[in-house]
Design brief:
The structure holds 2 protein chains of 2 kinds. Chain A is mainly α. In chain A, 85% of the residues lie in helices and 0% in strands. The termini of chain B are far apart. The chains are: A mainly alpha, B alpha/beta.
Chain lengths: 144, 475
């Protein structure tokens, strides 16, 4: 019962995370094909970029993703020694992967040129929030 | 046995009933099919009868001359918009239209548009082509007038006459008028002759370039990739305007743009695009830079396709030049900045800052753009009509995207106190719609005209600029 509940939760969370990744990919694709899309992205950048892409905020993002990554790694190592629960490990592993992607995205200057950079950033943080929530639920369910 | 017999009899009785019902059903189905078949045959025969030519009475040149000023007569040019504007097409001796005639091109009947009937009805109403009038339809190819007559007869317009305008054109004493700068809008046949190495009417330069204009890189421009006019080079509109306000680039950048594309003063430059507005935008800027002979394909790429001319899909590289042999901008009054726009606004008597945006944008109901949050208009600007939204310009175009009749444009403007003797500066959001209207004003021969290119994007960005909204008092 608990396994099927976990599987259902996994599927739901993965689907929702996937859905949040679609808009930035679609907007980035369309930004070189539709004038209205690039103009809108430029507008968003103008409106929100100065705040949410300021150096202070970028510093917070970098600290945030690195911290989450370190926490996930620590948890994986400690629970690997204590308890071998496959679903928990899957969630922890997924957390590490997603956090690594987040770290790579935020630290790498290669992505700054993306037209939908702001949208990508927002989507990644939503996905990380969802994944960490999922991990938290997993911990609660397992009462670890 | 007895039971079997009963069953058999009962079965037989049921079978007969069933067979009866089945036969009745078959007869019903056959009847329905026959009736509907007859109906469709009737429809076919009705449409066949619609396709049959309406008979037209001929009218002589003398009679036509007499009837021109009569209020119960109307003379209609059924040729292409290009012929109406001034081009000598179909072997005619003089270009242009009979003075006093209106236009209703047979080409409009071939356009595929979901609102075609509604738009054509509106055109008939605007041009006062009504059933109580005697309607003279003229052409030069013996076909257009008949096509239009067939259409008008379905609208209940029965008093129809036909006339061959070549007779009128061959007599220099009879008035014909064409737009002073009709040559700026070129027909597809003119461009075809140009790219085939011929010397079409009004072409004197000896060298030319054809450009396909659209937003975006060539590699992403499917219209260009799918097929373009032979020799056409792609221009990305981003070459002349920049984020975040999509303002026109500096004169230095425009000079570089001209060099990159080989836009010299003495080269005939032809612009076209699937979206005609983009080509008008670049055309206005080219004229500002100093290109003397700027032409735009009237009706856009669709006009070329409808003419059935071939296209090529190979990419043509830009042919840059080292020097332009002109100071950029050579025509600096053609595009004005915000300071000049304010000066125009201040001169209420002799000048008008004309808003070429939709009504909803003008009254501040919408900004018109997803990436522009400010609504309203520059205080003191007048509405010059436009279209339904930021990417349409129906009030200035015929159904086939050719230029609307100048009398109708001037009548539209007159309602808002805009007259051709004034200094007129056109603006919209970021200069696209206004560039097209500027070109039309140029074609019509207006002198003191300009484009306030940066438009509402720039005006609204500075809170110190005076702004108003709501419905204004009509002049």
């Amino acid at each position: 019962m608990q396994n099927s509940r976990c599987t259902a939760l996994n599927i739901i969370f993965l689907l929702v995370e996937g859905i949040f990744l679609i808009p930035p990919i679609a907007l980035e694709y369309l930004s070189t094909r539709k004038m209205g899309v690039i103009r809108y992205l430029v507008y968003l950048d103008r409106e929100y970029g100065e705040t949410y892409l300021s150096n202070t905020y970028l510093m917070f993002y970098k600290i945030g993703v690195v911290t989450l990554l370190i926490i996930s790694l620590t948890l994986l190592i400690s629970y690997y020694k204590k308890k071998r629960n496959s679903n928990l490990f899957v969630q922890l592993f997924l957390n590490i992967v997603l956090n690594s992607i987040g770290v790579f995205f935020i630290f790498s200057k290669d992505f700054y040129h993306l037209n939908a950079y702001l949208i990508f950033l927002a989507s990644i943080f939503i996905v990380l929030t969802l994944q960490n929530t999922r991990l938290f639920i997993e911990f609660k369910l397992r009462k670890v | 046995m007895y039971n079997y017999k009963i069953v058999k009899n009962l079965g037989g009785k049921h079978m007969r009933k069933f067979t009866k019902h089945l036969l009745t059903l078959c007869v019903l189905i056959v009847s329905v099919i026959s009736i509907s078949g007859c109906g469709s045959q009737n429809k076919e025969s009705n449409s066949n009868s619609k396709n049959e030519s309406v008979s037209l009475k001929n009218i002589s040149t003398k009679d036509l001359q007499d009837k021109l000023d009569k209020s119960d007569w109307i003379v209609v040019d059924t040729r292409s918009n290009d012929a109406f504007n001034g081009w000598k097409l179909d072997g005619i001796k003089r270009g242009g239209h009979i003075k006093g005639a209106t236009d209703f091109s047979a080409n409009w009947l071939k356009v595929e548009d979901k609102d075609k009937d509604k738009k054509l009805d509106e055109a008939l109403k605007t041009k006062k082509i009504t059933s109580d009038k005697n309607v003279v339809l003229y052409d030069a190819n013996g076909k257009d007038a008949q096509d239009v007559a067939n259409y008008l007869s379905t609208k209940g317009i029965k008093n129809l006459y036909k006339y061959d305008v070549r007779d009128w054109a061959s007599n220099d004493k009879l008035s014909m008028e064409s737009y002073p700068n009709y040559q700026m809008l070129v027909p597809p046949s003119w461009v075809k002759d140009l790219v085939d190495g011929k010397k079409p009417e009004t072409y004197t330069n000896g060298k030319f370039k054809v450009f396909e204009v659209a937003w975006g890189e060539e590699s992403k421009d499917k219209d260009y990739l799918n097929g373009h006019i032979k020799g056409a080079v792609h221009i990305n509109t981003d070459e002349i305007e920049a984020a975040p306000l999509w303002s026109i680039k500096s004169d230095k950048d425009l000079e570089q743009f001209a060099k990159n594309n080989g836009l010299t003063a003495d080269t005939t430059i032809v612009f076209y695009g699937s979206d005609p507005m983009a080509s008008y935008r670049i055309a206005a800027i080219s004229k500002y830079i100093g290109v003397k002979d700027v032409r735009i394909l009237n009706g856009g790429f669709a006009a070329w396709q409808n003419a059935g001319y071939e296209v090529e899909s190979k990419s043509n590289p830009k042919q840059p030049v080292e020097t332009l042999n002109m100071t950029v901008p050579a025509n600096k009054d053609y595009i004005v900045d915000i300071n000049k726009a304010k000066e125009i606004l201040a001169d209420k008597e002799k000048s008008k800052l004309v808003d070429i945006r939709s009504w909803d944008e003008y009254i501040g109901k919408t900004s018109g753009y997803e990436d522009l949050k400010y609504k309203g208009r520059p205080e003191g600007s007048v509405w010059g009509h436009a279209g339904s939204d930021a990417v349409h310009l129906e009030d200035y175009r015929n159904i086939d995207n050719t230029m609307r009749n100048s009398s109708e444009i001037l009548a539209m403007w007159k309602d808002w106190g805009i007259t051709p003797d004034q200094r007129l500066s056109f603006f919209c959001g970021s200069g696209w719609r206004a560039a097209e209207v500027l070109t039309y004003a140029d074609v019509m021969g207006l002198k003191n005209i300009s484009l306030y290119s940066n438009g509402w994007y720039e005006w609204s960005a500075d809170k110190n600029n005076p702004v108003e909204s709501g419905e204004p008092k009509r002049p």
